[in-house]
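Try this one yourself first.
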């Protein structure tokens, strides 16, 4: 008649993919950008403190303090996003690639050098092996 059916071989777990070197470089660059934003927040604080003549006027001083605080908060939040994207890229998270694409699209307005760098990043992040 025939042989008894053979059990199907157990599926082997997929070998972990190695992170492309370019993704590691992008993660480092995003971390550096995060540090840059943190430094920029403290520079904003210093610059606004260098305007003593304007700070002596009551209304203008309050407005400058509010603007300074808002700028610092925005820069710190952006820095946190950059650090999260860098960490996500190092861990191979797809959401980090998507946010990196958004950052690169925003970077297109930094004419001329930022535009060139952003185009290179976008081309790289849309490669099929990077998507995987």
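Now uncover the answer:
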């Amino acid at each position: 008649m025939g042989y008894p059916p053979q059990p199907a071989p157990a599926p082997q777990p997929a070998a972990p993919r190695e992170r492309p070197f370019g993704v590691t470089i992008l993660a480092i660059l995003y971390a550096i950008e995060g540090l840059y934003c943190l430094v920029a927040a403290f520079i904003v604080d210093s610059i606004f403190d260098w305007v003593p003549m304007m700070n002596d006027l009551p209304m203008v001083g309050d407005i400058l303090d509010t603007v300074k605080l808002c700028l610092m908060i925005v820069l710190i939040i952006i820095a946190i996003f950059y650090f999260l994207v860098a960490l996500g890229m190092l861990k191979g998270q797809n959401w980090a690639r998507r946010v990196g694409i958004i950052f690169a699209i925003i970077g297109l307005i930094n004419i001329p050098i930022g535009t060139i760098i952003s185009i290179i990043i976008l081309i790289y992040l849309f490669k099929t092996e990077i998507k995987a």
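Discussion: The chain has a mean pLDDT of 80. The chain is about 75% helix and 0% strand.
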